[in-house]
Design goal:
The chain has 373 residues and is mainly alpha-helical. The chain has 2 domains: 2-41 and 170-372, no CATH class; 51-147, abc type-2 transporter like domain (abc type-2 transporter like fold), CATH 3.40.1710. It has helices spanning 2-18, 21-30, 33-39, 60-68, 82-90, 104-109, 125-147, 172-203, 206-210, 216-246, 255-278, 283-299, 312-317, 322-335, 340-372, and strands at 51-55, 78-79, 96-100, 117-120. The chain has a 4-stranded mixed beta sheet, with helices on both faces. β1, α4 and β2 (78-79) form a beta-alpha-beta unit. The longest helix is centred in the C-terminal third of the chain and has 33 residues, at 340-372.
């Protein structure tokens, strides 16, 4: 009988959510357009930046420099005249304009250290400083390689051979999309569960539930499984069709294992949502309370900045937050292809945190129900 009550109460919650178009739009946006727009927005690093080059030298060295600007940082360089370069820079069609003066190769081989003019569109302030450094590094490498064919140049005493794993091109949106998905899972789980309880209170239907032969445990469990199921289904859709499909981000691990970890995280997050809902009487109060809780969960969990860069006491305190373990679990599975033998400590931590959160939320919910009765 108890399982049947929990099932039917959960179906009631799903029906109530289906009749709330604002919540449905929020769920659809959070797991589709929000992830895509954040991932493909203005990046912190260069990505397909347009560059124009005036090659007045027409030498093998200048051609090497022109050919060196390639994807993913720059679009293939456009060869322009001086007038065309200035016009495109003024119109904002290119971010960088390079002018290679005549006799550039001859002066380089003669050791005269000739100058190359670089014009940068500083209205794109996000890329002005980093882009100039990229251009200087590319030109320096090409000139050094070219000069080594004619005279010996002493190199550094130690040469570092760098190997970048899991993201060879350091593509920023590969990381941003998954982190945005993790944040949205937490936000929606807390918001939907808390809103379900506050909606019952504001509409006066809690008294109807109290008149039925159901317990607070059954009411709470029904809200948790129904809202958790909605977020889990949206997560599976987003990983498959948005992250892997639309954004073409490679997933190295098992999506099924990730969804199992997400289910454990949802157990803890929905319990937290119920706990917060028992502390608020209206949706505006609940929204203000969410700000105080969600910001630390997102900023200090290791998704925005590495946990190792935080003070030691912050790292220890955040071990009690489910998002800390979920971020580590998700990064291990989706980025590095980790299996259960690697991420089982995070699974265990999420289960324990979820059980504690559920117990505290249930005690608070029972007290709230008694007060309302």
């Amino acid at each position: 009988m108890r399982a049947r009550n929990v099932f039917h109460l959960g179906i009631k919650e799903l029906g109530s959510l289906a009749r709330d178009p604002i919540m449905l739009m929020l769920i659809a946006y959070a797991f589709t357009a929000s992830i895509y727009s954040t991932a493909t927005g203005i990046p912190d690093t260069l990505y397909k930046e347009p560059i124009a080059i005036v090659d007045e030298d027409q030498s093998p060295l200048s051609q090497r420099i022109v050919d060196a600007f390639q994807l993913p940082y720059f679009q293939p360089a456009k060869l322009r005249s001086r007038a065309e370069m200035d016009a495109e820079l003024d119109a904002g069609l290119v971010s960088f304009a390079l002018n290679i003066r005549p006799h550039f190769e001859r002066d380089v081989l003669a050791g005269r250290s000739p100058a190359i003019q670089l014009n940068t569109d500083a209205t794109r302030i996000e890329h002005a400083f980093t882009g100039s450094g990229y251009v200087q590094t590319i030109i320096h490498n090409e000139v050094q390689t070219f000069v080594q064919l004619y005279r010996s140049i002493s190199g550094p005493p130690v040469e570092i051979q760098e190997r970048v794993r899991f993201n060879p091109n350091l593509t920023r949106f590969w990381f941003v999309a998954v982190m945005m998905l993790i944040d949205n899972i937490t936000i929606l789980a807390i918001v939907l569960t808390g809103a379900a309880l506050i909606r019952e209170r504001e509409r006066g239907t809690v008294q109807h539930l109290l008149a039925m032969p159901v317990t607070p445990f059954e009411i709470m469990l029904a809200k948790l499984w129904s809202m958790g199921l909605v977020v889990l289904a949206a997560t599976a859709f987003s990983v498959t069709f948005v992250v892997q499909g639309l954004l073409a981000i490679p997933i190295h691990g098992s999506i099924l294992l990730f969804l199992c970890g997400a289910a454990l995280h949802l157990f803890a997050a929905t319990s937290l949502g119920m706990l917060l809902a028992t502390c608020a009487r209206t949706m505006p109060q609940y929204a203000l309370l969410l700000i105080q809780v969600l910001l630390p969960l997102q900023m200090l969990s290791g998704g925005a900045t590495p946990r190792e860069s935080m003070p030691e006491w912050v790292q220890q305190v955040m071990l009690a937050a489910p998002t800390t373990h979920f971020v580590k679990l998700a990064q291990g599975i989706l980025y590095r292809g980790a299996g259960l033998e690697v991420v089982w400590p995070q699974f265990l931590a999420l289960g324990l945190i979820g059980a504690v959160m559920f117990g505290i939320a249930l005690a608070r919910f029972r007290k709230t129900i008694e007060t309302m009765a």
